[in-house]
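User: Round two. Same drill as before: sequence, then structure, for each protein.

Assistant: Same drill it is. First protein:
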Amino acid sequence: MKANRSIPAAQVVPVLTYPDVRAAVAWLEAAFGFAERVRIGEDHRAQLRFGEGALIVADTGSERAAPAGGGVTHSVLVRVDDARAHCERARAHGARILMEPTDFEYGERQYHAEDLAGHRWTFSETLADVAPEQWGGRSMDA
């Protein structure tokens, strides 16, 4: 893949719509630990990074709208080093915690949160390398 400094290097980049891009960027940095890498216009879009991952924050307009409530249309999963500490940081900045950090048989500790615009997030800490067959999954890798 060719490099381009004008787009995140991650191969999959969620684009989430917020009613106020600048407020969303400030909140995502404070609550979840993202860092802004590119600003496009004053309140049009922003590219954020989190480790090797990326996220684009987009303004409303055209067909784009922030979540309206009443259903979950998506969730973004972000891997973190310490889910408990991350959860407390998010809570301190007003994230609505939907599920407290919970350990799962597939080797992950995860919590669920909702951000200031209603987007759903899962933050996941790896506790152990567990084969999918150990918890009832099936690996499709040859």
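Second protein:
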Amino acid sequence: MEPFIITCVLSTFFVAAFLKGTAGLGFATTSLGIMASFVDMRLAIPLVVIPSLLANALVMVDAGGFRTIFRRFWPMFAAAIPGLALGLWLLGESDTALPRAVLGATMALYGAWGLWGGTIRLSGKPRTAGTIGFFTGLVNGLTGSQVMPILPYLISLKLTKNELVQAINTSFTISSVIMLFGLGRLGLFTGEIALISTIGLIPVCVGIWLGGRVRRLLPEAVFRTTVFILLILLGLGLIARVVFM
């Protein structure tokens, strides 16, 4: 990989981690949205897996209550596996336009949902959870983004803060492990990618630390609104790139 591209990737990790530390936004989704503008999605997705996996696992361990959450949401976690398999197959078989378009739509919807700030009401029954899990896995396998539609769904269930953090990060962690294996089978997770992704943990840690300090100085609501708008614009830009190029 060219030194300039490596520099851009590491800079992207820092920016996404800074936004994660400041506004709590999805690291993988933001990273992929930026990287999709200058590298192929089949390169961007493997690069994000290791930083995302470690960050999610650390949060999952810190939140506690893993067994309770896993027993409650295991149908959703299990349903994500065939969705991930299908998404990874589509990633390997399709050209880069499809995952870029889906990622753009995911980012735009995520940003619009964040700006809306409203609530939705969905059933917590296994069938509903399984459907949400499958489509979350499908989007994750195809684009690397892990937030939709699982995040709005879990928020609709009125979980406690710790339950929400544990549930979402358990989903992220399981998905990241499967993604790591699946990308390896597709030949997309190479030694070079693993090295760059591991080095990327440094700017990720710095970005999260710095973002946390900034969060305590700036009005979080205003900053989150700004970031959601940027996500919408970036997502629409990815869609426009597919349509008009």
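The two ends are 24 Å apart (CA to CA).

User: Perfect.
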